[in-house]
Specification:
41% of the residues lie in helices and 17% in strands. The chain is an alpha/beta fold.
Length: 508
């Protein structure tokens, strides 16, 4: 059967499409061929989703598919790859990538079964709990179709049908889109601890989707459906999301960040790109070079002086943008207190390199490996306000100190609320805005191995650090000037927000 499918693909799809496209090109150059004249375009049976009236839908119920309606890209391979890489391992992700030639030949149902088996076979259920909640929502939101979401948000009750495993989409749909019920493919488990990779006895949800489609005579159309219940009769309206409206390059369908149902603040995972087959292939090709490059860049900071480390680091592909002037301390017996926004564990390291002076960084949690390879001094805090205050005062008497009062890293353009402890420490406070851009791997994680954070960051081909050093806060705007520590913390946060335009303030 696989051989027959391959012959059918070559003869009818590849050759026929190639000949047809060639004929269309000939016609486009001015040669009119009667048998290639354009046919009358097929009129769609249902209006576009952009024509849907959003008012008065609160009492109605919506049923739709997630990949063919709510998402602009209809391919679900990237989301299986995210589960395989983030929830499983790099070897599972490589196996899924190597299966692409076989997936290309198989039909829809067989393709879905094979991807499900490779992704979930032997995967621990507890390892899968974090991926749908913290990893996948970022990519779902970035791929969300704006027009389809507006229709979804306007309805009262929402039900989503999908052929992919329910565990991959249920968390996002219920938490971000307020979907009432999600009906998807169920997976078989062993002892409630492991996935077998097999579909449960009910099978794929293709039959259920086919039932709805045949009932309404709209099979193989990407649509959203409204079912309005009135006098025990079912009255429905159908709207179609066609391919042109859902394309990735269509700017009108892109979901802007300010229209997200809820702010995307904390998300996890290492991959910073949507892992399509081609993008994943390039990642695995780069991986051996990236590991060597990461070790080289880390050794530069450990072994070489600041100037040499910065020069060779930039030559290796690191983009370092520094704005502002280097401040000078006025008190001889006390160092400067640098207050930074927190993007990665490397914030104090890059600041120290940019200033070409040694700094001491205080942290709440850092791995032993990170402490060992850090080119600057790091001191752990205890989360005891009195003890931590005494520690920071002692460190300031010894030299310059850098703190990240947000307490945790944030990848998105938000500033988390500042802790006010730093404002009680010194009068010479220098605000510093940090921003990071990566193209392949994130240098932060919440559930993964923290000691790998600097390695993953330096594995990016061209990671960039943008540092803006503001002027010292005037003495009259500090605790020495009569302000409370909370007022000082909020003032510095506003400085970083307005002057640097880093994003939004999130109060948690």
């Amino acid at each position: 059967m696989v051989l027959l499918r391959f012959v059918n693909l070559v003869l009818y799809k590849l050759l026929a499409n190639s000949c047809y496209k060639a004929a269309r090109k000939v016609k486009s150059y001015g040669f009119y061929l009667g048998y290639l004249s354009p046919k009358t375009p097929h009129k769609l049976s249902f209006p576009s989703v952009t024509k849907c009236v959003l008012e008065g839908r609160v009492s109605q119920t919506l049923i739709c598919d997630i990949h063919n309606v709510l998402l602009r890209s209809h391919s679900f391979f990237p989301y299986f790859m995210l589960v395989a890489f983030e929830g499983g391992s790099i070897f599972r992700a490589l196996l899924l990538l190597l299966s692409c030639p076989i997936l290309w030949i198989l039909d829809y149902e067989q393709k879905l079964r094979l991807m499900t088996f490779i992704t979930f076979c032997g995967l621990k259920i507890k390892n899968m709990e974090n991926t749908p909640r913290a990893v996948l929502p970022k990519f779902y939101l970035e791929n969300l179709n704006l027009h389809a979401y507006e229709v979804l948000a306007s309805s009262g009750s929402k039900f989503v049908l999908t052929s992919v495993p329910r565990v991959m989409v249920e968390g996002f749909l219920k938490e971000y889109l307020s979907v009432g019920d999600v009906i998807g493919t169920e997976l078989h488990t062993v002892a409630g601890s492991y996935f077998t990779g097999l579909i449960s006895g009910s099978g794929l949800l293709v039959k259920c989707l086919f039932h709805y489609s045949v009932t309404l005579h709209i099979w193989q159309l990407f649509i959203t459906l409204f079912f309005c219940f009135y006098n025990s009769l079912i009255h429905y309206e159908a709207y179609m999301v066609n391919n042109e409206e859902g394309k990735n390059n269509n700017p009108s369908s892109v979901m802007p960040r300010e229209k997200y149902p809820k702010p995307l603040i904390f998300h996890d995972g290492r991959l910073a790109f949507l892992p399509t087959p081609s993008a994943t292939f390039y990642m695995f090709i780069w991986l051996p070079f990236g590991i060597i490059l990461a070790i080289y860049r880390i050794l530069l900071g450990i072994l070489l002086p600041y100037n040499y480390a910065m020069t060779l680091g930039v030559l290796s592909g690191i983009v370092l943008n520094i704005k502002g002037c280097i401040p000078e301390k006025s008190e001889k017996n006390k160092g400067l207190l640098y207050v930074c926004t927190h993007r990665t564990l490397l914030d104090p390291v890059f600041l120290s390199t940019s200033l070409a002076r040694p700094l001491t960084a205080v942290t709440y949690s850092v791995s032993k490996v990170s402490e060992f390879i850090a080119p600057i001094r790091t001191v752990r805090l205890t989360r005891d306000r009195k003890k931590d205050g005494e520690t920071m005062q002692m460190l300031l008497r010894e030299g310059d100190l850098v703190v990240c009062p947000e307490g945790t890293t944030c990848r998105e353009p938000y500033i988390l609320r500042f802790s006010s402890l730093f404002a009680e420490m010194g009068e010479e406070i220098v605000p510093v805005a940090m921003n990071v851009n990566v193209s392949m791997f994130y240098g932060t994680t919440a559930s993964g191995l923290k000691w790998l954070d600097p390695f993953f960051f330096f594995m990016n081909p061209r990671p960039s650090y943008h540092i803006q050093i503001l002027e010292k806060v005037p003495k009259e705007f500090t605790c020495a000037g009569g302000w409370s520590s909370f007022e000082v913390a909020n003032y510095i946060q506003r400085l970083l927000l307005i002057d640097v335009d880093i994003g939004y303030v999130i109060y948690l």
